[in-house]
User: Fold this.
Amino acid sequence: MTDVSTPAQPPLTQKAPAGEATTSSVSSRVTTGQTGITLQELLKARRVCHAVVMAQKMQVVLTDDIDGSEATQTVTFSFQGVSYEIDLNDDHASALEESFHDWINSARKLTGSRGPKARRTSVSTGGTGGGRDLNEVRTWLRAHGHEVADRGRVSQTLLEEYDKAH
Assistant:
């Protein structure tokens, strides 16, 4: 019969073989802020003392942005094209939802993955259009014998002529 036992682990105080780093020498360099520890040195030190590498667990604690109590959820909403996020407890989240209730029921829901977008209209918001419906202006100008491009600026002279007629 063959003895298949695992070799005993060396005590932590055992000296490392020549040329190998010990856990204490590596950890002292790490804790004192010295750099230059290679992965190979760290692995050798682990082999010498059979250290166990531990995982870290991070816990995020939400704090209510209204009163500082423990929050239970993060609420995301958008207004005027700007997205907001707030951490709230259940009572504050309900209050926010109730305050939005009438507005949400009267509003149109936007769908799509890109979020809210500004609606495109044919009404110019600046430039030479001056808030006029440029498609309407072009139609009127064509009906009155003017050559006008389908896109781009309409000359100030033609806009003034349109304005005098309206």
Observations:
- The radius of gyration is 36 Å.
